[in-house]
Structure formats: structure tokens, C-alpha cells
Amino acid sequence: MRPLSNDALLVIDMQRDFCPGGSLAVAEGDVIVPAINELGRRFEHVILTQDWHTEGHISFASSHPGKRPFETVEAAYGPQALWPEHCLQGSEGAALHGGLDLPHAELILRKGFRRGIDSYSAFLENDHRTQTGLAGYLRERGLKRLFLCGLAYDFCVRFSALDGTALGFECLVVEDASRGVGLAGSMEAARVAFAEAGVERVGLSGIG
Fold it and tell me: Residue 4: is its pLDDT beyond 90?
């Protein structure tokens, strides 16, 4: 399929902390950088997201005495997975991967900057009510079909695609330009959720 003028590439959280050597590294997270760069050259409209946490963020295990990374706590808005400290505002780990070459990107959307609420999705924070403003940005520009890639497939890519679909956008996940965390069946859960929501899974070779 050839990207159209009302399509956008949404590159999710390609940050140093999510790549090998980072505090919350996704296996082979850096391997997809060349694929994302190649993909980006096929799109007129490119948008990046950036996890952007405060000190003491609710998603950090270190903010919950006695808790460890990958455990779960109950937040006011529901279950919250706990993670190692990552993507602190202004830190090297929060920076976008140095190999990204997307100079025509039109927007960098920062999310997860509210201390008391996490944000996986590019559209809604984890209370599923607080909007990031991305939907309005896309609608004002007439961008209706979104191709999503990046990190991590089973968390931020997954929830961005599901929320985008629920908000009326056509969402497609580029699987070979994404990588997942792979916690306790999370990859299969993502695929099932995509199928149920009508989110198409595509490959790099079929685009452009």
C-alpha cells in the first residue's frame, strides 16, 4: 500500500532507556532503527512520542516501598505495572535514539509527565480519560490513517493503536519496525487485542 497525504507514521518511544544499555531495555530495541528510518522516508507526515517522567513517578517501583519492578500496584485509576526508573525528564535515557533520522517529523508528543498517572498510549493516559491532545492534532490536519511502530509492541504501541482505533482513526501496526517487552504472554495478548479491535498488522515490505 502506498502512503497517502492523509496518512501519518507514528513512531512510539524510540528512546535510549528502551534500547539495549538503557534502564528498561527492550531486546533488539535498537535493531529496528534502520527500518524506522526507511519507513519514515515513505511518509509525508511523521509524529514521534517521547516518554517524559518526573522524579518519583507512580510507575517507578522505587516510588513504592517494598515493591520491585514488574510487580503491580492498585492506582486510583486501576492496576499499574511498576518499572525501573526510566525516561526521566531531561536525562540521557529520555533522549531519542541517536540513530533516528527523521528530520521532517512534525511533532514530538511527550507523555507520562504527570507524576500521579502513567501513560502508555499516545492518545490517552492510563485513566483512559485524560487526553494527550494527539487526536485533535491529527483531526485538524486531516490525518485519518496511522501506521504505528516502535517500542514497545505489547505496551505503548499496543495501547496507542487500540485507543486510536476507538477514537475513529484507522490504525495499522508495522510489526517488523516494532519490538516487544514480552512479559507473561503480553505479545500474544497484544495480537489478540489487535484482532478484536480490527487493527491490521502489516510488514515493512507492504508499505510504499
Answer: no
